[in-house]
Amino acid sequence: METSALTRFVEMIALAGAALAILGGGAAWRATGKSLGEFYALLLWSAAGAMLMAKGTDLLVVFIGLELMSIPLYVLAAWYREVRPRPRPG
Fold first, then answer.
1. The domain containing residue 52 runs over which residues?
2. DSSP secondary structure string, 9-55?
């Protein structure tokens, strides 16, 4: 299956975003004392949905990718409401 340059670019953006979220989000989750396993799994499912959306040539595949991307992000947003940001010095 041939993929275009735009598809590869969007996949790299999705993977880079997931990598940045893993590197930056781990400290926030460790501060709450919660398990990080669910965080990583939901983040990777969301990245897989974004990559599926980018590769989709059929509307049904694009819709499934959208759902696969958005539902884990909704769950992460619901968990994130308990994490309080640290006050900035100064």
1. 5-80
2. HHHHHHHHHHHHHHHHHHHHHHHHT--SHHHHHHHHHHHHHHHHHHH
